[in-house]
Amino acid sequence: MIEATIVTAIGIVLGPPDRQTLIPRTTHDDDARDTEASAGRPGRGIALEKLSTGVESGSLVGVMGALRGNRLTVDAVRRSKVADIFNCAPELEPSDAAVYTRPEASADQQAWEIELLRSGQLTSRRYLKARDGSWRVIASAPNPESVRLQLEHAYGSQLTLVRSAWTSAQFDAARKEAAKHLDDWELSALVDGTNGRGLPVLRIAPRELTPTIEIWSESLPAGATEVFPFIAEAVNDTSFSDRSTTFSHRWQR
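Structure (tokenized):
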């Protein structure tokens, strides 16, 4: 008999109540109709046994239970406050001088920023809303002082400018390397995201977090990547059962 491993898994439930499968999302808009065709891909989903009633096909949920091979006997379900790679938007703190109108760059400013982004002198520039609904401009550059004057002229108190944790070239190289491993890492998604500081981050969604993926992530600058495994070993029951917090498999070194 195959030994069971207690795990948690996050994905979309598919199928009728007596024959349901859990699969990872591949886009923001995945629902039961879009993902039904891909559910049969070898190794993609896991069959759910003893899933509680009331979980509709197409729902994004977290489940905990005993995994034997590709079948999971469900012990508990999270129907709310569950996050995968596609619903982890940054929650930024307001700035000292909150501005509630969206910033608008002139055509000349946009052209200047595009050129600096292409050259790598500017790593990122993003318009983002803070928790209180105010707008902030978060920019990063390898040498912030070389771009500060013009960015401050354009955005004033809405600007936060920081030194890049990594260069555009490093980001592009990491994305290309991850793309080479779509099959052997069993990636369901590869996303250019925004972290909690408003800076660019590369996100991947493998079937599981493996030593190979950890080594790859650790070879990159700290905070450059976030990993969202479909299946994770259950090592902390409290995080799953605490309904006041969001449950996620997000891993970052």
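The longest strand covers residues 5-14. The CA atoms of residues 170 and 220 lie 8 Å apart.
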